Structures are given as C-alpha cells and as structure tokens.
Amino acid sequence: MFPVGANIQIIGYLDKRKLNSRVIGWSDGEFVVIEHPVVQGELAMLPKDAAVVCRGTVEGRTYAFKSHVLHVMVQPFNYLFLRYPRDIQEVTARQGLWVDIEAKAGMVLSPSDAPIPPAGLKEMEGLVHNISTGGCVVSLPKEANLKAVACVFLSFELPNGTSVKYLKGSVPSDLPLDGDGVVELHFDEGDPNASPVFDFLLLASKILQPNTE
Which of 14, 25, 152, 201 is the most exposed place for a label (fewest CB within 10 A)? Predict the structure, then answer.
C-alpha cells in the first residue's frame, strides 16, 4: 500500500476525471482512507459504491489499483473510505526509458526550492529535449543565471497532445551538461503535475517494447 501522506490520483470509471488526493491510512484487507478530492474549492462528489482507479508513485515507480467507495465522511473531516485492493499493479514505464520530444516550454525559474511557482516571477521560454519518469533534459532561457536557480516550473505540450502545467524540476548542484545552459532537471516523487508525463511514457514504453527486446 502507498505510504501515509503519499500523493495519489483518483480516476473515476464513468466520468474519467483525474482527481488529486492523499493517503491518510488504511486497515489491511478492509479499507483505505484518503482525503476527499477538491476541485476549484468544492468537494468532487464521489458517491458511495463509485468505482475508481487509484494511482501513485513510490520510489520512482508508479502503481495502481482498482477499488470503489465504501463510505463518504464529511464531518469532522472530508475523507473517503475505499475498499482495500485485492492487488496492486505496477504500471511504470520501463526503467531508464528516455523519450526525445523537443518541446517549447514556458519556464518559471525559482531561486528557492518552492512547491509552487513564486508570485511575481515571469515565465520565460526554453526547450525540453527529452523526458523520463524521473526528470528531463532542458535548455534553460539564455538569460538564466543557473547559479541563482534552485528549481524550474515547466509548462509544455507532450507529443500526444496532453498539456503539462507547472511541473517542478529541481536543478542539480553540479554544472550544466554543456556551456549553453543544458541541464538535467529532477522531478519530485509523487508530484501530481507529473501524471501526464507518466501516462505518455507508459504509452511510449508499450509502443517501443517490441523494438527493444
């Protein structure tokens, strides 16, 4: 089971909404307790018996399980009780898979290790060259001072047409890969903004698998 506090994504069987939540706890073989997802400040209504898929990342690997809502709690906390899964499947793209994408990206360069883009920083344009489950290689804007950047928030479109918004990439302490501001950024484990990347890489892994055996 995912550790307490882990960020997970809840996908409804019927409406296919992808909702962000967090694991509160569980009882083996009985139930899993998660925070009730919120959309635009309102509880995302998931009624009793609603079928869902839960997905999350642990130590760089993505896992998923099927379940349904056992109980909806609104007082004193907004919690959902889900049926404890019969099995949990790994759905991670092949380890070490990198995909070339060459995508223009909006980049917010933060001087501190912030969870969201700090207010007042303008978005600049850079390039994402390739991407994996753990990070990506980018060309930072020419005007960027790498020594003053702790993390970068990326917004770009994947080759499958899916948009990525404010995906956080931490800047390593070592030097860029070359003299033109090319650097490998590292994603935070469990970042819900990375879910479109995992979906894309899982698809790419399945497509490329026959050619790599």
Answer: 14
